[in-house]
Each structure stands twice: as C-alpha cells, then as structure tokens.
Amino acid sequence: MTLSLSSDATAIAVSPRGPLSAELLEVLTDRAPERAEGLPQLARDAVLVEDPITDDDVQLSLFLLYAAAYGSLPQFGAHWEWDVSLLTTRAVLERAFEDAVRAAAPMPETPEATRESVAAALFALTAPQPGPSLSHFVSRKADADQARELLIQRSIYTLREADAHSWAIPRLTGRAKAALIEIQADEYGGGRVERMHQVMFAEAMRGAGLDDTYGAYADSVPAITFASFNLMTMFGLNRRLRGAAVGHLAAFEMTSSLPCRAIADGLRRVGFGEDVTAYYDEHVEADAVHEQIAGRDLAGSLAEDSPELLDDILFGAAACLTVDGWASEHILHAWEAGRSSLREERQPG
Ligand SMILES: [Fe+2]
Ligand SMILES: [Fe+2]
Is 269 a member of any domain? Predict the structure, then answer.
C-alpha cells in the first residue's frame, strides 16, 4: 500500500513499513491528528525487535519524525515538530537506537584529553582498512546503473548534507564552535548557493537522470540507509549527545577524501560528465582540509575544553564507522551477489 502524502506539485509517496510508520504517516499528514496520543505506545512495541538499527519500521519512523523537524518532507505540517506525543515517540525510538549502536560500535582505547592525542586517536581509528570497499568497487567495476544506485542510496543524507551536524552548533561554545562553523561554512558553499554541497549533489542526481526531490527514493532504500542519516540527526538534535555529534563529523570527514576520489573516477569511467562528478571532485580537496580541522580544532579542542565529553566523542566516531560501514557493506554485498541494493518491492524507474 502506498500513501500519497499530499496533492501539491512536490508530493512524494512514502509507504509504511509496519504499524508505527503507518500510523505516523496518518498523523503527520493530518489525516488522523487525533491518533497522535497512541503513537508512544506503538513506538514502545516497535522497539521490541532484535535489531532496531536494521528494522524498517523503527528506522523509517525515526526518519519521518526527523523530517518533521527538518521540513524535508513539506507535506508534514510544521505544527507537529514540537508535539508532545511525537517527541515522546521520538525519545522512545532514539533510546532504543542509541542503546543498540552503543552495544555494536567497538570503542577505541581512550587517549589523553588533549588536542593532539584526540586527533591522533581519531586518525588512527579512521585509517583506511585493507580489503574490498564500496568506493573501490565503484572506481573499478560498477556500471552506470550501479553508479545511479549509489547516488540514490546517498541522497537520503546528501541532499541535506551538513544539516544534521549543524544542529550541534548552538550546543557548543568557544574553539569547538568556531571550528564546526568553519567546516559548515564550506559545506554550505561559503555564501554561494551553487557551491553548497547539497546543491551540488542535487545537480549530480539530475545529471545522472535521477529525481532530486527530497525523499523521492525513500521507498527504495533499506533501513540501514535511514539509520546512517538518523544516527547523525539524533546526535545533532540531542544536546546530551553533542560530543558524539562532533566525533561523528570528525570520522565522517576523515573517511571521505580518498573514497570520493575513487567514486569520481568511477563516475567518469562509466561516462558521466562534470555535472555528476563535480560533487565528488570537490570533496577530494575539501575533506582533506576538513579532516584536519575536525580532528584537531573541533574534536581535539572539545575534548581539551570539556574532558567529560571525550568518551562520547570517541563513541560518535565509532558509531559513524560502524553504521556507515554496514550501509556501505549492504550495497557492496548486493552488487557482488549480482543484485540491486535497493528494496526489491520498490525499485525506481
Ligand atoms: Fe561536503
Ligand atoms: Fe566536508
């Protein structure tokens, strides 16, 4: 069953993936606003699954609730953003998600809470690993359809690139805040809309013949793709997790430059032009700079100034590597098995 969310021109359809997301779609689109009060109990039932990180109903529901805060699915009225039943629902899902990620993410040894030690620990944690990787596959073997599939998978985050970590800006002070703003200013194009990374990614999607409307492929992506975006949004939106937001961004930037080079090479190899490759080419240089700022000035300074956040900085980095690692593995394993990484029942085109 597909629920059409709105009748306006940009309406996109999102299908439920279980009882909670089905009810949430009814409430968020104002078809059944009176049923909001029942959502927290549905959430308590929904999180009783073996793995909330890969559960479709849990991850889609969290994605929908965050969309109400971002405004990324305009069919969801802004009045739902601070609704107490929805906030309670979100807190239930976030608790289960966070607990599962804390249990899954292997923590590195704790360094000294100094700028250089923390940066060194994060660079060690994020050092390139030997063995097969998604970006290597894209560089050498992917065909044009698989390259498009990668853009579809990445669109859930990248059409909103940088927004998740921006929630953390007012939750920081001093050196860490200055460093985060320095990175984010670049992500948002330094005042030039056409240089905004999310705008460049939208152009890449259009250049590859894809729909750049936010959420156009929401029905196609697996739960782990939502989990990747939900993780950073959860860190950014919860003040108590600001250390994790910083660690997440540091790990994200530190693992971006080389894979982006490989992906840009792969996109060129299958025949895409500058409009599609520009986003990835931009990140080869930009993230080689960002990773230095993120490691020392952002994460290192935060640990030095607020040593009580050190464990969460490391947790955020480990969580990024774990969850994003699974999201990439999901795609790579599907391709190696000759399958699509998208959900079989809802492939685009
Ligand atoms: Fe970027
Ligand atoms: Fe960056």
Answer: yes
Q: What's the total number of domains in the chain?
A: 2
Query: What is the CA(25)–ligand 1 centre distance, in A?
Result: 31
**Distance between CA 323 and CA 184 in Å, rounded?**
22
pLDDT at 13: 82
Q: Which residues surround ligand 1, an ion (CB under 5 A)?
A: 187, 197
- Token pair belonging to 180: 């985060």
Length of the chain: 349
Asked whether residue 109 is assigned to any structural domain, the reply reads no
Q: How far is the CA of 262 from the centre of ligand 1 (A)?
A: 16
> Closest-lying ligand to the alpha carbon of 278?
1
How remote is the CA of residue 162 from the centroid of ligand 1, in Å?
Answer: 7
**Residue 299: closest CA among 108, 123, 105:** 123
Q: Determine contact, residues 269/138, Cβ cutoff 8 Å.
A: no
Give the angle 86-92-93 at the CA atoms, nearest 5°: 90
Contact between residue 83 and residue 91 where contact means Cβ atoms under 8 Å apart: no
Give the Cα separation of 122 and 248 in Å (integer): 10
Whether 124 is in a domain gets the answer yes
**180: three-class secondary structure by DSSP:** helix
Residue ranges of the chain whose pLDDT lies below 50? 1-9, 349
Render pLDDT for 185-215 as a digit per residue (tens, 0 to 9).
Answer: 999 999 999 999 999 999 999 999 999 999 9
Instruction: State both tokens at 340.
Output: 């699509």
Rounded to the nearest 5°, which phi and psi values hold at 56? Answer: -60, -45
The last residue of one of the domains, among 104, 130, 155, is 104
- Residue indicated by tokens 């690993």: 129
For residue 251, how far is its CA from the centre of ligand 1 (angstroms)? 13
